[in-house]
């Protein structure tokens, strides 16, 4: 087919801009509108909700968005594909059918199931030695259940846990009639899906050089014009905020990835083959992507209930900041007595400026986070002890919040099962269950590519922030963090690639020194990607780091000073 498939995305996470669905439908033509609502933490939240109500477990926001916009989607002839089904895709599909009937609309709603492996957790060995049986256990399904539903006439497809990119790959595979082994086309669509999946991050959101982006309006959400060979153009609707450039696309391509071989249930995508090119204002062409067969195993997201947590933050002002912090620690450690929580972590944030002209300049924060299996140890006993220092502690005592009882936290771990273990099923709008066979097992799929030799730039050096020549984007992969760093020009890349070694990375970010760090080179993107194992501990819900999802690690790295050739500045 000569005409591209126009796929837009209106949600990057559960809680994203509510109005985006209406904006995407109103602002321009779309063949397919997707919505990504799931993350590892979201699965935990939905799992806790389902414990209280077996009929829950899906993203209720999406149902409210459809109440407002379903008629508009029908009027525009736009198909909708979403993973908002979470832990209960059948339940959400039933509610959408009821909604359509109530609105007097004819909408053929299908859904995909089979990702939920919780009932088989014991059989599959998912129990954790510390936390027991998981609260949720969901396999990352691929695109072919979505494709089957669309091929059989669905107007809307609801899924549970599929890979984020599958929301784009499925519609493209159905539209262009791709086969299971059209690896390059599938890989290209996977890249398109990866760019779209986080919404406005592709149009200037969370972008290192944000001051260069038109920001009078909120960034528009991205769309991809996908072609029959898997190549695409990333763009946005005319008149919306933000921008689509090779660098905003590069930033999103580096988000939450590992090595150059990006393994998924449908295809292993070679990120080191991606080619980007300007295609006009707010248009970036992606081509050249190569694909290989997927690995023989499927990833499973496990969430266990880990215990309970709480935190209190002390405001320290003026002179003797470190001495005041030590005083708080001594008092609170003494208050714990024999009931000290299993994990107590202190973080001193900021420092007071000399001769501060404003009170904020005189202030630092001391944060104490506690975790324990026993809710009593981290509840009022902890927060109350912190507040009791009010008249018996350091001068200028104040806190950022009143005492609270805290709450439960979850622990994320990945697991892997043979592809044939997962019963991937497409349930058509007519109620027929169609089994989706697993991808054929293929061994020895490469996972890494060698980097290129860089060329040193001979020029006088100036000590300036690394961010003068490099952008970065960082995020979480369970307990691991990834920091993708890209150079803005070819000359800067020839300097950056040999400069930013693992050893240099650890020097610049000392908190990574005790962790295993992997470095992957992506020359086509002028980028290096670092994966730091265990930096985020046991995942966002259990992490006691001040930045538990690692979102700001890239900006910390960019703020660090390095000796950079003046010719590159």
TrEMBL record:
InterPro entries: AtuA-like_ferredoxin_dom, AtuA_N. Residues 464-559 form the AtuA-like ferredoxin-fold domain. Residues 5-426 form the Acyclic terpene utilisation N-terminal domain. It comes from the Bacteria. PANTHER family: DUF1446 DOMAIN-CONTAINING PROTEIN, PTHR47585. This is DUF1446 domain-containing protein. It comes from Actinomadura livida. The lineage of its organism: Bacteria, Bacillati, Actinomycetota, Actinomycetes, Streptosporangiales.
């Amino acid at each position: 087919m000569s005409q591209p498939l126009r796929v837009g995305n209106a949600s990057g996470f559960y809680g994203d801009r509510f109005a985006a669905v209406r904006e995407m439908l109103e602002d321009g033509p779309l063949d397919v509108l997707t919505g990504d609502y799931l993350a590892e933490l979201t699965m935990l939240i939905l799992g806790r909700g389902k414990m209280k109500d077996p009929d829950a477990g899906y993203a209720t926001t999406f149902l409210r968005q459809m109440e407002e916009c379903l008629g508009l989607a029908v009027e525009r002839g736009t198909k909708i594909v979403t993973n908002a089904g979470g832990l209960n895709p059948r339940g959400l599909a039933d509610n959408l059918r009821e909604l359509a009937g109530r609105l007097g609309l004819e909408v053929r709603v299908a859904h995909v199931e089979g990702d939920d492996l919780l009932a088989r957790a014991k059989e599959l060995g998912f129990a954790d030695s510390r936390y027991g049986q998981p609260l949720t256990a969901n396999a990352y399904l691929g695109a072919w259940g979505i494709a089957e539903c669309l091929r059989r006439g669905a107007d809307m497809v609801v899924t549970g846990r599929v890979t984020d990119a599958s929301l784009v790959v499925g519609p493209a595979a159905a539209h262009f009639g791709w086969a299971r082994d059209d690896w390059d086309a599938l890989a290209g669509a996977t890249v398109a899906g990866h760019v779209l999946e986080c919404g406005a991050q592709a149009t200037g959101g969370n972008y290192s050089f944000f001051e260069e982006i038109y920001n009078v309006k909120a960034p528009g959400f991205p769309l991809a014009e996908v072609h029959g060979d898997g190549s695409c153009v990333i763009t946005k609707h005319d008149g919306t905020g933000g921008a689509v450039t090779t660098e905003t696309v590069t930033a999103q391509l580096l988000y939450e990835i590992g090595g150059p071989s990006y393994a998924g249930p449908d295809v292993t995508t070679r990120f080191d083959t991606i080619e980007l090119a300007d295609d006009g204002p707010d248009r970036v062409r992606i081509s050249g992507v190569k694909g290989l067969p997927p690995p023989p195993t499927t990833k499973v997201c496990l969430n266990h209930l880990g215990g309970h947590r709480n935190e209190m933050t002390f405001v320290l002002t003026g002179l003797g900041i470190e001495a005041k912090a030590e005083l708080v620690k001594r008092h609170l450690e003494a208050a714990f007595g024999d009931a000290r929580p299993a994990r107590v972590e202190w973080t001193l944030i900021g420092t007071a400026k000399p001769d501060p002209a404003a009170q904020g300049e005189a202030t630092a924060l001391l944060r104490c986070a506690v975790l324990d299996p026993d809710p009593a140890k981290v509840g009022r006993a902890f927060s109350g002890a912190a507040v009791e220092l009010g008249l018996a502690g350091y001068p200028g005592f104040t806190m950022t919040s009143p005492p609270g009882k805290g709450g439960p936290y979850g622990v994320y771990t990945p697991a892997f099962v043979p592809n044939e273990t997962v019963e991937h099923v497409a349930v058509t709008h007519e109620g027929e269950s169609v089994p989706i066979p697993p991808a054929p097992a293929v061994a020895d799929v490469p996972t890494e590519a060698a980097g290129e030799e860089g060329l040193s730039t001979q020029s006088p050096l100036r000590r300036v922030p690394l961010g003068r020549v490099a952008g970065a984007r960082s995020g979480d992969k369970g307990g691991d963090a990834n920091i993708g760093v890209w150079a803005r020009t070819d000359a800067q890349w020839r300097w950056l690639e040999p400069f930013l070694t693992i050893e240099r990375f650890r020097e610049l970010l000392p908190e990574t020194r005790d962790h295993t760090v992997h470095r992957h080179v992506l020359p086509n993107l002028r980028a290096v990607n670092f994966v730091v194992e265990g930096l985020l501990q046991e995942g966002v819900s259990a992490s006691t780091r001040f930045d538990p999802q690692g979102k700001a690690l890239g900006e910390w790295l960019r703020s660090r000073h390095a000796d950079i050739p003046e010719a590159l500045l």
